[in-house]
Amino acid sequence: MALPRTKRFFLLCAFSYAIVAIAEKNYYEILQVPKGASDELIKRAYRKLALKYHPDKNPGNEEANKRFADINNAYEVLSDSEKRSIYDRYGEEGLKQHAARAGGGMGVNMQDIFSSFFGGGPMEEEERIVKGDDVIVELEATLEDLYMGSTLKVWREKNILKPAPGKRPCKCRNEVYHRQIGPGMFQQMTEQVCEQCQNVKFGREGFNVTIDIEKGMQDGQEVVFYEDGEPIVDGEPGDLKFRIRTAPHDRFRREGDDLHATVTITLVQALVGFEKTIKHLDDHLVNVSSKDITKHKEVRKFKGEGMPLHSSKKKGDLYVAYDVLFPTSLTEDQKSKIKEVLG
């Protein structure tokens, strides 16, 4: 039975939104906050990311400039309650349609947002905020993970702040005032003033952390989870940082964006040529054959068969060293034939 025209229309719209949503960027992921994040958490996340990827700190880095634009675009939407509500329900396409109906556009002036948040003039450094300790975890990733990209899950236990009975002094600050001690004479006084807050205690909590290993990440690069480090009373938690380390591999050795491998061949193969392939990290085969004489320890380059460059479509190179396996002994007849052939 055919569906009524109105129902078909709404089904088509829903399907269109689903297709668009797959291709759209996730503003919450861009700012590295959960979907239900508070306005304050969104502001803090924006501050950290905008300072990190600002063009002044990354001159000539196109990827950083692109990230900076995405960060500002995401903050423009998530910091506006109306836009955020539309985005949560209908995604980026819904925002564009709303802007079109309102006669406006979805364009974002990055400098306007940054200036309104940090002030005008040259880029200012992040203001001093009391923070808990950062937690740095050395994360060993396989070459396969770093070649193809991967997702790892790590169990994490940390301290969390929980309410406790009683009150405690908090948000303490120094207040300066003047007291008259005689005709025309004043004494400056400084007094610490504190508010009363709910008491807190530390408890332990465990959960899985999902870490995205991006193609081509280098040793020392970090995957950062902001404010997921150690908490501190009356301050912001530190950050949780997973620092990438490449695990040893049985077939390849990595140097930057290049890979190195060793292929063993016989003396006969070294002299007359050979047919040979090696299996790459994603299981595709690389032809390392030769029709010429191959010297012991000779190294040949295979362009574009190395590691992918991080945040790029390019790849490094593969360098293959040939290890010629010499015979351990020869008979007199073999020696004579070799002399006869080689002169």
UniProtKB/TrEMBL annotation:
GO terms for molecular function: protein-folding chaperone binding; unfolded protein binding. InterPro entries: DnaJ-B11-like, DnaJ_C, DnaJ_domain, DnaJ_domain_CS, HSP40/DnaJ_pept-bd, J_dom_sf. It comes from the Eukaryota. Coiled coil: none annotated. One of its GO terms (biological process) is protein refolding. It is found in: Endoplasmic reticulum. One of its GO terms (cellular component) is cytoplasm. SMART domains: DnaJ. Residues 1-23 form the signal peptide. Transmembrane segments: none annotated. Keywords: Chaperone, Endoplasmic reticulum, Signal. Residues 26-91 form the J domain. This is DnaJ protein ERDJ3B.
